[in-house]
Amino acid sequence: MADVIRIPIGPQHPALKEPANFMLTLGGEKILEAGVRLGYNHRGIEKACEQRTYIQDLYLLERICGICSHSHSTCFVQAVEEIAALEVPKRAAYLRTLVAELERIHSHLLWLGVAGHEVGFDTLLMYTWRDREVVMDLLAALTGNRVNYGLNTIGGVRRDVTPEQKEKILQGMDILEERTRYYIQIATQETTLIQRLSGVGLLNHEDALRLGAVGPTARASAVDRDLRRDDPYAAYREVSFKVITDNHNDVYGRTLVRVGELMECYGIIRQLLKQMPDGPIAVKAPRKIPAGEALSRYEAPRGEDVHYVKADGTDKPERVKVRAPTLANVQVVAHMLKNRYLADMPIIIAAIDPCFSCTDRLISVAQADDRRADVMTWGQLRDYSIAWYRRRGVDFSGLNRTFRKGGA
Amino acid sequence: MTDEETIQAELVARFPFMRDKVRVQRPRRVWAEVGQDHFAEVFGCLAREMRFTMLSAITGLDQGETLGLIYHLARENGLVLSLATGVPKAQPVVQTVTPLFACADVYEREVADLLGFQVQGLPQGPRYPLPDGWPAGQYPLRKDWKPESLGDAKAEKGGPTSG
Amino acid sequence: MLTERIVRWARIKSPWILHFNTGACNACDIEIIASLTPLYDVERFGVLLKGTPRHADVLVCSGPVTRQVKDRLVRIYEQMPQPKFVVAVGTCACSGGVFQGCYNVEGGIDTVIPVSAYIPGCPASPGAIIDGVVKLLGSLKQSK
Q1: Stated pTM of the model
Q2: Do A230 and B106 make contact, defined as CB atoms within 8 angstroms?
Q3: Of A191, A256, A331, B133, whose Cβ has the fewest other Cβ atoms within 10 Å?
Q4: How many other C-beta atoms are found inside a 10 Å radius of the C-beta of residue B154?
């Protein structure tokens, strides 16, 4: 007989039909069925792209997502440059790659903190986001902004790197490499964390392939794919790096993949700075792009980002289609939630590093034998999850205390 | 012969109607087009026999009299073949490709919502990406659609149904 | 009235914040959270993040208000007790930003609910966010 679970009802009255992002049917404490309902931050960007010039679209597409903005900008501009048969100068390709890897660093460190927050390991959030500020400062110095860098133009980039900035970047990489070694230590030695993340969000290799998983989520199920190696763009052919895979098939594996990728980022950036060729940073691009089409792919921190662009000889694109990496992982999420404990949901979702807001997702919850659905907020779900695990002896209060006392 | 040329040759050899319909744009980018009458066999062949194991995306387009669909298929080695097809706008019915690619589910719902495709064989599920209450018959990515069209339309519950 | 002044004093000392994203790209949300982390540490001003509208003094909003979330934004605002304040963080929240004219976007937060303070930026930096919050607290102090 399943336990009756009191799920706290949110301030939103269940009778009011809010668009829930997840619709769960529970059997006791387990998720029997999970429906994922996306689209609440659908803004109509693709349509807007058709009514704006290519340069305006660069600025618009950067703002699809505030974490991988350079990914979208670069993926788009590569498609346009292919249609216009523009040869981007090598130095520009290097600079794009530099910012791409700096973005990967900030994204993965951000993710580490968010993952910590979701399981109640809040001091990890404080530490990783403090370290992340090292790379935010570098990006701001290089590009003029912490996010939404505006680095790209059609035909190259808009800003160059100075020798002083190069020095600062190298120093930053040394600092972050040491800090990341510490996070790897935590990830591989802190039993509370290992316990909490292992066996959760299971996705075996065959299902990862079948469902089309991308990014670290796929690589943690031993799917050996990374567009930087398989479909190289920008300056990735000029540097050597390892594609990090793991075979834990769970959230723990996804953590290991991301910290492993961080270490590779530092190596790639050092190579880029050492080898960066002299020369111009952009070629002149026509305002009107000749008729044609192109498909551009980019390995964003979350996985494969795809942009299709169709040009019609005017200064505005005929069609811009964006398939962001999180959308490719939607089915994977639904699969990973099924037959799992409700308490595992926050970290399962967090582990695909989803590109949708984490502050206001609503979850509609109904017991299998009772059609009436209650609505939980994400915060309530997280609190439930942390309490559930605490009752089973997985408790981060100790680690939080140690870290607060200056464990690093 | 490059990989791309091999693919070109193989497609034409298997499907003579594909002569002059396969184009190599650059390394790792092949473009092909096929009518709906032969779509299933060509698509199935690419997915099952020619090692295109990944469906990266599906692009829908408004081409005036027709609605276009481009399926961007990829191999493990990074080669992408984009297969374009089309249907009359007056009867935009296509078959789901989810039996071959589970990830197509949300991509097909997207072209249904934004362009008005009727994708047969899609299981019941929530619409994507338009909100509940979006008025029926309004397809934002169609060239003749303007945001002002939303002003007078009455809201309707639910979204595109399957099958 | 004395109770009003006590309540106002308590609110100035430690306003409780509810953070809500109305369809933003997340950049402003991350900068809001970053302002809670040690480097910027807005908690030293007594600002606390709360989970429910019923206890919130200040609603901190990002995003250009998509159709999906518009009703929810209004409901959250209505559930907040008086006196309540709304801060629009980021250019999208101020005016719709780059998404002005996009078909699924309403525009700035003030097209839906009244806004007390506007913090522009794309994204608004943690420094700008803290500056805006401090200015709002300052204006509360000054009102009778």
Answers
A1: 0.93
A2: no
A3: A191
A4: 7
